[in-house]
Design goal:
This protein is an alpha+beta fold. It has nine helices and seven strands. Helices cover 36% and strands 9% of the residues. Helix 4 crosses helix 6, helix 4 packs parallel to helix 7 and helix 7 crosses helix 9.
Length: 316
């Protein structure tokens, strides 16, 4: 995806991080300011802009919060083209994949505006402050928490009385599932792959059991933990099952988990954020290690519209 060193873009992609035993390690985000009522970044409608990509699960979670809380008018977006190039995430000059905010042709041009000059990977999502013309954060977990707690205090996706429980779920989901599929897909040794897949499917089994008796992860009402899990579920059968070798079972093989995923999909605004064809185009893009010919499979066809048995309550 390219890197930036002292504000200068380097197109060479060093590849996914790994340890000596071949296990994948995700690079940490480095731009982590916060929106707070006291500032300097305050929750003013129209002040912020999100740079995202449909096929990125980390960006997807921020789009989910924006949709559920009805922040579409408060926070504008630019959507990068589905496949990266040697310039990383790029934009068209017009149309659905243009950048209406800064008229950037590549995401690294946004990072190049950061003060002081930026060093690190060029990733989405990016939360941009229009007032000060700088990046607030490129850490999706922080952006989800900020959007879900500061813009509509009456409808918090992480209410204080459930914060500890939500944080426990977030840690488990990130380690074993959100990042777990990447640990499997980017493993460089059999041992690393076996460990990742074992952790992943053990956790999916546990989630399936939990959701047999619970409407959501924390009860009956939607929280940010559910929205952090959903992007992986949305991509599982069309991408991770095949492209990342997470093929012990499909999401649709877990009755309670599949019902829960469809109940999330049925919430207002969520279906519009799910793009299976774009996921396939992205995850099956040419890769020397995973898909040398870049052939995108025709299937599977997943029916997300089949009515779920459960009904998930939105925050009051």
């Amino acid at each position: 995806m390219g890197v930036m060193i002292d504000g200068v873009y380097e197109a060479e992609d060093p590849g996914p991080g790994s340890t000596k035993n071949g296990a994948y390690e995700r690079a940490k985000s480095t731009l982590r300011h916060w929106i707070t009522p006291d500032g300097p970044f305050t929750p003013d409608p129209g002040r912020y802009h999100l740079f995202v990509a449909w096929n990125c699960p980390w960006a997807h979670r921020t789009l989910l919060v924006r949709a559920i809380l009805g922040l579409q008018d408060a926070i504008s977006i630019s959507i990068a083209k589905p496949r990266r190039t040697d310039q990383g995430w790029t934009f068209d000059t017009d149309g659905a994949f243009a950048d209406p905010e800064l008229q950037a042709t590549a995401l690294h041009e946004v990072y190049a505006r950061q003060r002081p000059t930026y060093t690190g990977r060029i990733t989405v999502p990016v939360l941009w402050d229009k007032h000060t013309e700088q990046i607030v954060s490129n850490e999706s977990a922080d952006i989800v928490r900020m959007l879900g707690t500061t813009f509509d205090p009456a409808r918090r996706l992480c209410p204080p009385e459930h914060e500890a429980e939500i944080d426990r779920w977030n840690t488990l989901i990130h380690t074993k599932i959100n990042n777990g599929v990447y640990r499997a897909g980017f493993a460089r040794t059999q041992e690393a792959y076996d460990n990742a897949v074992t952790d992943l499917f053990k956790t999916l089994d546990d989630l399936g059991s939990h959701l047999t008796d619970h409407t959501t992860l924390t009860g009956d009402t939607l929280t940010e933990a559910d929205l952090r899990l959903f992007p992986t579920l949305a991509r599982f059968d069309v991408a991770y099952h095949y492209a990342f070798k997470c093929n012990l079972a499909k999401l649709s093989d877990y009755p309670a988990l599949w019902d829960y995923a469809r109940a999330l999909y049925a919430l207002p605004g969520i279906a519009a954020t799910v793009k299976p064809d774009i996921y396939k185009a992205g995850y099956f893009s040419p890769s020397e290690l995973r898909n040398p010919l870049g052939i995108v499979p025709a299937g599977p066809k997943v029916d997300w519209t089949h009515p779920p048995r459960r009904t998930i309550q939105l925050p009051d």
